[in-house]
Amino acid sequence: MRTSFLPFSTPSVSDEEIFAVADVLRSGWITTGPNCAKFEAAFASYCGAEGAVAVASATGGMHCVLQALEVGAGDEVITPSMTWVSTVNLICLLGATPVFADIDRDTLMVSRATVEPLITEKTKVIIPVHYAGAPVDMDPIRELATEHGIALIEDAAHAAGTEYKGERIGKKGTCIFSFHPIKNMTTAEGGMVCSDNSELLDKVKSLKFHGLGVDAFDRQIKGRTPQAQVIQPGYKYNLTDISAVLGLGQLERLDAFNTRRTELVTRYHEKLADLPEIQPLKFPAYPHTHAWHLFIVRLDIYKAGLERDAFMAALKEQNIGTGLHFRAVHLQKYYTETFGCHPGMLPETEWNSDRICSLPLCPSMQDSDVDDVVAAIKTVLKKG
What we know:
Elements: H1 15-27, H2 34-47, E1 51-55, H3 58-68, E2 76-80, H4 85-93, E3 97-101, H5 112-115, E4 123-126, H6 138-148, E5 151-152, E6 154-155, E7 163-164, E8 167-168, E9 174-178, E10 191-195, H7 198-207, H8 241-272, E11 278-280, E12 288-289, E13 295-299, H9 301-304, H10 308-317, H11 333-339, H12 347-353, E14 356-359, H13 367-383
Helix pairs in contact: 1-8, 2-8, 3-4, 3-7, 8-13
GO molecular function, one term: transaminase activity
Family: Belongs to the DegT/DnrJ/EryC1 family.
Keywords: Aminotransferase, Pyridoxal phosphate, Transferase
């Protein structure tokens, strides 16, 4: 057994990035400023996006995009239940109704086949989730959205560096990225909205900073217009220059991070191949580049002889950290009581929700760390 605890994930921050943050702190301009503008431009260029707006979190970005699309009472928004609760919470907070789509059992992602039967005249938005670093099969879903005149928002929180059919996620449509500390790159907290819809981006830019008619930092005058006019009620979701300069450094290393993640996952696959109790997710069949934000396995609870939560607890006793991404949203207390959601609604989602476990994965890990995780799994299964 390991003598030290292996966390599920830790951010990889370089000395150069620490020095850059310190320089910003000394500069006198630590809120939204020139580094935020540089970060937006650099991330848009990396994705091939027409434009990008930095925000304080992906949740804040989703809030702004949903409001910019005028989602409200009487509207329905289709999204998977296998996702983080923030998106569904926002749908409800705006007065709309979440409609949950089931997923593919082995990729954990929605498809046109799972989304199309849910469309009604009330459907305002579809929000597919790129999962664990793999992309949703977007072409059929884009066609579906176009056919029905429905807006599409891609939840790309897991997809920094992910490619779909030769193009990076973020190049097409409207995508929202997360830079939370466990993500492939981090700004401590933060997010980015990329879009090829300039009018939508302008609305997001206004909403994320009090509804003003100018950004928190105007690139032309290197500051903010005094007494800028409020054009709509807005929020306080702007990213700081402290976070942005960290993001600039992280973005330069993102491809290297993802390469190392891929190496670690390859080792996981090799080491776990002889364990029938452990079922990794499968690769999507269409052309893609996986960013490996998460390495998720499913526990065969019958072969293993123990439940998933007990499996995770036993790994912790072996000094191995794990994650759970995610418990099905539709079975959370609020959603069962408010919308009448119940077990049996989404069989593939529920099957996975009872079995998934995220194993440690971050660029700072050594090959020996993967070996330790697999050794701990084998020990737990023997005791199971």
